[in-house]
Each structure stands twice: as structure tokens, then as C-alpha cells.
Predict the structure.
Amino acid sequence: LWTPAQIIEDQVQRVREQVGDRHVLLGLSGGVDSSVVAALLHKAIGTQLTCVFVDNGLLRKAEGDQVMETFAKHMGVKVIRVDAEDLFLGKLKGEKDPEAKRKIIGNTFIDVFDEEASKIDGVDFLAQGTIYPDVIESAASKTGKAHVIKSHHNVGGLPETMKLKLVEPLRELFKDEVRKLGLELGLPYDMVYRHPFPGPGLGVRILGEVKKDYADILRDADAIFIEELRASGWYEKTSQAFAVFLPVKSVGVVGDGRRYEWVIALRAVETIDFMTARWAHLPYELLEKVSNRIINELEGVSRVTYDVSSKPPATIEWE
Ligand code: XMP
């Protein structure tokens, strides 16, 4: 049996042999897989690695700054941050359909990434955070959501157009092994054991049309929910938890005034494989605290609901 340290040593050697003195490009999302690849490649080839981090305006609260803090500041990884919020929100304007929104976000991501990549001279390799289950999934099905997921996250369209060779050091590993590698490489525990976050981000957690105001409210509500989950020890007991923005207005009272504002839904699930899931039986006291905080701290929210739908038939995400 291999230890994380041995796997890292082995992959570092392999990457050095494959890459030589050439340059490697990596799309860094802040998710576990691409983060571990960044740390691993940095160890293997240092400044021959350039990461591109696209801030699409659909990330969680402070996420972009955290990615830059961890990689650029602490680890000294070369990361180019592209602030593309206006571009993404502009392209999404008026679009209400979930799958159309996914396509727009995925295609825009590829455009932005492609443009950044073309500015960097002498790149021969594209690194990807493909892990073993991705390899199986894409072999098993070329259609459906699994494919959509990977085509966005692992930048499926790029190698052909850019004629880059692939570097995929996690191809033979399962998620729990990837996490152990991440810790061994010195990534923060909270980053390595973070709940999964979909490629289209808040774009599929704002129902219908995506607007900046909605995204800002959702980011704050989500941050409160996650903060309370962590404080109560429930973050580790749930597999995925998040807030959803419902573009529905509801009446409330604050002091002697009437409030007519938006609705936030909370979703938390327990699952092993994300194919089926049970809604998490969070304590009432916790839900009460989260709900009170969201309504009291966020002017734009007048009501909070908790989603008690299991998968199937409901999906984990609302769109
Ligand atoms: P559903 O909603 O299908 O979600 O029950 C199952 C898991 O997949 C994630 N998910 C996505 N991930 N791009 C992604 O990268 C997507 O378009 C996408 N849709 C759903 C979801 O967050 C959950 O972990």
C-alpha cells in the first residue's frame, strides 16, 4: 500500500519526466481536485506552472480572495486572476433556462480561459484535475449531466483547439486519496474537506435569471448558513449544504414596518455518492438560528425555508 507521501514523490518524478523544461497551464477553480493538482505541480515544476483562476462572479463569499491567498500568497504559485464578473453576468442577462445558463457559463469560461492562455508564451501542456471516477464516468456516458459537469470543470473543449498535451496526475486516484495528498502537500484542511461546489456556481442556485443583486444576497445568506454549520459541528455531518435564492417576494414585519422581500431556501443533504441523497435532519435550534440571522442581518430577505426533499425524486441542486 502506498502512502500519500510516496504517491506524491512518484507523481512529482513522472510530471518532471513528462514536462521537461516546458510550461504547463492549469485552470484553478478552488475546488479540491484542481487545488491538489496546483500544489503537486508547484512542487514538481515550480515556476513552469501558470494557473488561471477565473472569477465568474458566481463564486461563494470571499472565495476568489481565499484562492489567491492560499496559492499566490502563501505557496508562491503563479496565479493569474481574471475578473470576469461583468462578462458572465452580461451573457447571462435575460436567460432563465437552467441548461441554457449552464451552457453559457461553460462556454464563457472556455472563452476567457482560452484568451488568457493565448497571452502566455511557450505553453505545451494543460494540467487537469481529472480523478479516477471522472475517467470511468466519461467512459460510461457521453451524455447527461456527468458529461456536462466534466466538460465545464475539466475544460473538455480546450486540448483540441489549443493543441496542448494533457497532464493529469490524479487520474488513478479516488477522492479520499486526493484529499490525503492535498493535506500532505500542505493545503488547508478546510479547503481539502470542503463540500463540492458545482462548476456553474451560484448560477444554478439563483432560480431563473441571474442578477448581481441576487448573487450578493445569496453569497451573504450562504456564508451565514455555512458559518453556523461549522460552528455547530454539522458541516462535517453533511455532504453538501448551501443556500438557494428564490426570486419570489414575501411579506414580513420589522419593527413597525412592513417588509416585502426575497425568499432564501436552505438545502443540506447526506449522501455517499451524490446519486441518491437524504435531506439532513438538522436540529431545529440550528435552523432557527440560521433563519433568524439571515432575516435580521440581510435587508433583502424576508423569509427562510428548509428543503425537505430527498433525491430521488428531487435533485440536490434546485436547477
Ligand atoms: P444534482 O443536482 O444532479 O447534483 O443532484 C449532484 C451533484 O452534482 C453537482 N452538480 C454539478 N456540478 N456542474 C458541476 O460541476 C453542474 O452543472 C452540476 N450540477 C450539479 C451538485 O452540486 C451535486 O454535488
The CA atoms of residues 274 and 316 lie 8 Å apart.
